[in-house]
Specification:
Elements: H1 6-49, H2 60-67, E1 68-74, E2 80-81, H3 90-95, E3 106-113, E4 116-126, E5 131-139, E6 145-152, H4 166-169, E7 188-190, E8 201-203, H5 209-243
Helix pairs in contact: 1-2
């Protein structure tokens, strides 16, 4: 074949595309187990960080088994359903616009640390430029936040991107999602700063109003679902306590 002909040039180009394409496909397939493990390790690290446990990719699984003792899935109404909570990708559900809220599955993780128990819930919402997500740990009264971690991929550096810093996350500790009347109120991310002593507010990010509002909406829309489950637990507990009461 004439190496200077157009046929040779096109044939060589097609052959190279095929070789490179097959090579990339094979490499990607071979790396799938490693990618899956890295994704699982990152998820374990994020879950544990909500209760203040530092973990690395090296010890993520070990730490996860040490602190997380139960995984549960609930539906939109707060009823427990079957399945693997860890395998549920809430970010994937968020991106699937064919799913209605009532069709989604809501995983949660129960942890023990320093003789205290916590429930950790994942969440995802909308920021300015894309999704924002996080994990919130609640104390065993199901209303007090023990810890919160948030993240993003595309928020503006120095503004909305600050949601994954201690400056934004730490103030959530000790805040209540239930008011004194027993009503669900979530946490308000308040523009201009939280009111002094208000246990239902945290400071918004100056210049990052849309991202702050996105986090607030994410908290409300997610925690109200889990509160259905928490409320049922409290009712069951009251029934048990009442049944065990002996009139003297």
């Amino acid at each position: 074949m004439n190496k200077e002909s157009n046929l040779y040039t096109f044939s060589f180009a097609i052959l190279m595309v095929l070789v490179i394409g097959i090579g990339l496909a094979v490499t990607s397939e071979l790396l799938q187990p490693m990618k899956k493990k890295n994704k699982a390790d990152k998820k374990m690290i994020d879950i544990l960080s909500a209760i203040g446990v530092d973990a690395t990719r090296t010890n993520a699984n070990e730490k996860y088994v040490e602190y997380i003792y139960d995984e549960t899935i609930i539906d939109y109404q707060g009823h427990i359903i079957k399945g693997s909570a860890f395998d549920i990708d809430v970010l994937f559900q968020y991106r699937d616009k064919t799913l209605n809220p009532e069709d989604k599955k809501y995983p949660m993780f129960k942890a023990r640390k320093d003789n205290n128990e916590y429930v950790i819930v994942p969440m995802v919402g909308s920021g300015l430029w894309g999704p924002v997500w996080g994990f919130v740990a609640l104390e065993n009264d199901y209303k007090t936040i023990f810890g919160a971690v948030f993240d993003h991929k595309t928020e503006t550096p120095g503004l909305g991107a600050e949601i994954n810093t201690d400056f934004f996350e730490v103030p959530f500790k000790g805040k209540h999602i239930i008011n004194t009347k027993g009503e669900f109120v979530s946490i308000e991310v308040k523009k201009g700063g939280a009111e002094e002593g208000n246990i239902h507010q945290v400071d918004g990010i100056t210049g990052g109003t849309i991202t702050s509002d996105g986090v607030a909406d994410m908290l409300y829309n997610t925690l109200i679902i889990y509160n259905n489950y928490f409320s049922s637990i409290k009712v069951d507990s009251l029934v048990v306590d009442s049944a065990n009461t002996i009139d003297l």
